[in-house]
Design goal:
Helices cover about 80% and strands about 0% of the residues. The longest helix is centred in the N-terminal third of the chain and has 29 residues, at about 15-45. It has one domain. The protein is mainly alpha-helical and about 150 residues long. Helix 5 (about 90-115) runs antiparallel to helix 6. The relative contact order is 0.14.
C-alpha cells in the first residue's frame, strides 16, 4: 500500500476536533448565560420577601449580598457571551466562567446547608459547565481576538 493511500483517507484525528468542541462550548455558554441572566435578574429585581419564599437562603444573607450575587450572575452571563461573540478580549469569557464556577461553589455550600443535597445538584451542574467553558475557552478552543 502506498503512503499516498494512507494519507488520502482522512482520519478523525486529522479533522479539526475543535469544530465540535467550539459548538459544544457555544451551547454551554448560551445555556449558562441564559440561566445566569434569569437567575441574576430575579435576585436583583424581586422584592426580598417574595424571593425568600422560593429561595429560603435569602433570609440568611444581607440584602446587599443577595443583590450582589444577582449582579455577579448577570455580569457573568454577559461575560460568557460578549467577549467571544465580539472577539474583543475573548479571554474574558474564560475568566467569567471561572467566576461563575466560584459563585456556584458558594451556591452548592449554601444549598447543602439550607436545603440539602437535592437542591445542590443544580448549582453543581452549573459549576461543572462553567469549568468546561473556562477550560475550553482558556486552553482547548480559545477564540482569537480581532
Amino acid at each position: 500500500m502506498s503512503s499516498h493511500a494512507l494519507t488520502a483517507t482522512p482520519s478523525i484525528s486529522s479533522t479539526s476536533p475543535s469544530t465540535g468542541l467550539h459548538r459544544a462550548l457555544w451551547a454551554a455558554q448560551a445555556f449558562l448565560a441564559l440561566a445566569m441572566l434569569v437567575a441574576g435578574a430575579v435576585k436583583v429585581l424581586t422584592p426580598l420577601d417574595q424571593l425568600a419564599v422560593s429561595m429560603p437562603w435569602v433570609r440568611d444573607f444581607a440584602p446587599l449580598a443577595v443583590r450582589a450575587i444577582g449582579a455577579a450572575e448577570v455580569l457573568g452571563a454577559i461575560g460568557l457571551i460578549l467577549p467571544s461573540a465580539l472577539r474583543i478580549l475573548p479571554r474574558l469569557t474564560a475568566l467569567a466562567a471561572l467566576g461563575l464556577a466560584a459563585l456556584m461553589v458558594g451556591a452548592i455550600q449554601t444549598d447543602l446547608a439550607v436545603s440539602g443535597p437535592a437542591k445542590a445538584a443544580v448549582p453543581a451542574v452549573f459549576a461543572a459547565l462553567s469549568l468546561f467553558v473556562a477550560w475550553g475557552r482558556g486552553r482547548a478552543a480559545p477564540i482569537a481576538a480581532r
